[in-house]
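Render this sequence as a predicted structure.
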Amino acid sequence: MRDIVKTYNIGTEGELTVLPGCDFTVEHGEFVSVVGASGSGKSTLMNIIGLLDRPTSGSYSLAGVDTQSLDSDALSEHRSRSIGFVFQNFNLIGRISARRNVEMPMMYAGVPRAERTERAAELLEMVGMGERMDHRPNELSGGQKQRVAIARALANDPEFILADEPTGALDSHTGRLVMDMFHDLNRNQGKTIVFITHNPELAAETTRVVTMRDGRISEGDLLQ
């Protein structure tokens, strides 16, 4: 990302610039945490990194692709292929099973039904949810839901995982288990991870820490 600016309500009295010119580079295979106080711009940055929103200006290249040149359909396809998302509140679909939740990204990517069902089962086994893959989210604990969400993030085998406060809704023991899973994905599977968090202790475990203040990024300088 180079000189990323994000301004809302342009040309009105409520015009607000959240990112005034942000530079951010993540190398393949890194595990980077982004820390910052509420209102620092973390969520806006996450939405742009995840191709969920477009910057007002600046350039953003993801996996060698200039995202600013993509139309909405191409942007969705690139997001589906390149990024796995893990959210604080899981974002699982309540009316379907864990297995079906993991299948969803593959369905949108056009993966045949038999193949996606098999891969969803394999991923759920990998995250320790094999025995509960036919349960719906309301039958699972918070930690189990997050493990399902991690399996879903891996569905299309993305190289890049974007995790937004993934331990924020979990108790400390369960959060520890989930954090260990991220370490495994990074060290043993080579996944690039950007980890958005307000927890400086968890951030300190990652290979690099950046801090957001007033929409700008600086290296290190963990918030206390």
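Summary. The helical segments are 42-49, 72-82, 98-108, 113-126, 142-153, 172-189, 200-203. The chain has a mean pLDDT of 92.
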